[in-house]
Amino acid sequence: MIDFGKNAGFDLKGRHRAEARFQWMGKIAIAISLFFLAAMVFTIARDASGIIKQTQIQLQLDLTDATGIAQNNKHPSYGKAVKAALRAQFPKVKKRKDKKRLYGFASPEAGFEIARMIDESPEILGRITKVWVTASDGLDLYLRGKVDMDLPERQRRVSDAERDWIATLQEQGHLRRVFNWGFLTNGDSREPEVAGILSALVGTAYSLAVCFAFAFPVGIGAAIYLEEFAPKSRLSDLIEVNINNLAAVPSIVFGLLGLSMFLGVFGMPRSSPLVGGLVLALMTLPTMIIAARAALRSVPPSFKEGALALGASPVQAVFHHVFPVAMPGMLTGSIVGMAQALGETAPLLMIGMVAFIVDIPTSILEPATALPVQIFLWADSPERAFTEKTAAAIIVLLVFLVSMNLIAILLRRKLETRF
Amino acid sequence: MLDPIISARGVNVFYGDSQALFDIELDVLPNKVTALIGPSGCGKSTFLRSINRMNDLIPVCRFEGELTLSGQDIYDKSVDVVALRAQVGMVFQKPNPFPKSIFENVAYGLRIHKMCTAKSELQDRVEWSLKSAGLWEEVSHRLDEPGNSLSGGQQQRLCIARAIAVQPKVVLMDEPCSALDPIATAVIEDLIDSLRKDYTIIIVTHSMQQAARISQRTAFFHLGKLVEFGETKTIFTTPKDERTQNYITGRIG
Question: Phi, psi (5° rounding) for residue B140?
């Protein structure tokens, strides 16, 4: 009888051991990467959770004599009215220093918020109305328990008096926490409580649109020519090597190129998504060309041969049969390249997209900033509340990235031809 | 004796430094099936691909000699390969329908050569081609389905329909049945026989039985040389050359 069992020899035991060892190593590797991914997501989500809701403070606003309150006519602010309302709520506060602390409860932007309210419903002018305005980041942090009250009073950001005022406000129902729409609809600001992501988001969207509009046709065209038409020669080899090298060039170098070329030579507007998009396009071009060539190469040559044998011209054979089949792959490659561009900060710093942008850009020629640059700027800000904004902005960036990849997958599903 | 439609005179083909064909002299008669047989690497496919200049696609490939189609030198500078390939159709070893619908597969040649102006004309020609390829019954109700949803034999007939849709003079077939089962092969063989009345067919095959069954004339290639060429019956019953004798009896190859 022949032994087919485990003890049959042939070094079966050794081979099984090696197999088990390798599988364990693989599992451990996956566990380690999953752990770090989970840790990253957890810390970001924890930090960002603070900005989901925002504190508002209710003021009894006296606008009976509004004409005198508006500070200037172009951008009217009702800061004085806000201060007056806060004073009215705490008539016992007399000292100048204490008043200043009291004013600190409302965001410095509250005056502008009231101006916008008046724009929307002018009837509140000349009346006494109750309105909700954004509270300052300090008040918000205190309410969320982020201020350490065990420290001696001098080292604290919230004094005992302030603590008592806040308690009073809470008792009277003048404080509330609402969903923080402002984060998604505002531009950047010096005040963390009103700083929003929209200007950076729009800047990124414009830049990527420019990037795609420029890099996709150029990249696909170059790939098709190199792969399907270019005669094989020393020159084409040289070009190929250089494209591969360009893909590995640090992105800041492309920023310098953009600075000297687009801004210096062509005189395009500084800090604009147009220039940002073009720089990102230069950066993604090599990646796109390489991906597109790989996609073209994966098309079975029999399609092209069949078309040529029917009497199709080379251009017809490529565009009727090779290109459509390679299209999903080329699109995926491009979107991967764009995703890389999405997270790129360094080249944008070089062309001035690092500016402090409050207004939402309305065209690709206006100054703008981009999501990763915004993250960098906020991470650099000293205010405690900006830490949370940074985490939230990272989440927005990641959501943007995931949706881009989702689009890539959906497009590929839709366009893919089975053969 | 008919006038030959294709004649090769002193054809030499090189791949870089190595010579694949040596001084081929061969006349193909119209409306007959000519079989090219021989062991692998003997140059029969190279010769076949010289006729529609598909070898031009290989950068290192070089052609010498004279190859005429209907009296015209097809390697002349004035010849446009697009026009040549519209006259010389080709069916490949592995069925290669385009990743498009059955209808579009057949209509493609007609479209690129702008042979049909009206839509109804195009539909008629597609129907005619599919009927000629013996495929109409099987696919008439599903012309919108992708060409690669068909079975292997049906795909190969679709490729034949695609080739004859533009009504070429000559149809080249490069081992069209080697990827098919015997039943599908028999269907294609019957088809080839029926196409003979309208087209000149040159077929490369590894199966000597197939050559004997479907061809009227057979050429035996060996190591890049045309060893023997003549009536199929003669080649298979009374070959003159010893190498032919050895090949058809299975001693070499």
Answer: -55, -30
In this model, does residue B245 exceed pLDDT 80? yes
End of a domain among A180, A215, A238?
Answer: A180
Residue/partner pairs of A138-146 with CB below 8 Å, 24 or more apart: A138/A104, A139/A55, A139/A57, A139/A104, A139/A105, A139/A166, A139/A175, A140/A54, A140/A55, A140/A193, A140/A385, A141/A384, A141/A385, A142/A166, A143/A55, A143/A175, A143/A177, A144/A50, A146/A50, A146/A384
Residue A109 has pLDDT above 80, yes or no: yes
| Domain of residue B220, residue span | 6-96+170-248
* CB-based contact, B54 to chain A, within 8 Å: yes
Any domain includes A234: yes
Cβ distance of B82 and A313 shorter than 8 Å: yes
| A85: containing domain | 50-180
The pLDDT confidence band at residue B226, using thresholds 50, 70 and 90, is: very high
Domain count, chain A: 2
- Give me the pLDDT at residue B176, please: 92
From the list B94, B100, B109, the residue facing A310 with the nearest CB is: B109
The mean pLDDT value for B138-154 works out to 91
Cβ of residue B13 closer than 8 Å to a chain A Cβ = no
ipTM of the complex in this document: 0.91
pLDDT tens digits for range A201-220: 999 999 999 999 999 999 99
- Looking at the complex, does the CB of residue B83 fall below 8 Å from at least one CB of chain A? yes
User: What is the number of CB-based contacts under 8 A between chain A and chain B?
Assistant: 69
Q: For residue B111, is it within any domain?
A: no
Residue ranges of E strands in chain B: 6-15, 18-28, 33-37, 61-69, 72-73, 88-91, 170-174, 200-204, 217-222, 225-231
Token look-up 């015209």 returns: B72
Q: Is residue A187 part of a domain?
A: no
A87 by Cβ neighbours in 10 Å (0-12 / 13-18 / 19+) ranks as middle
Query: Any chain A CB within 8 A of the CB of B111?
Result: no
Instruction: Say yes or no for a CB contact (<8 Å) between B162 and A310.
Output: yes
**B112 and A312 in contact by Cβ < 8 A?**
yes
**Three-state secondary-structure class, residue A334:** helix
A176 in the same domain as A268: no
- Whether A34 maps to a domain, the answer reads no
pLDDT, one tens digit per residue, over A163-178 is: 888 888 888 888 998 8
Which of A180, A208, A231 is the endpoint of a domain? A180
Q: Does B46 touch chain A (CB under 8 A)?
A: no
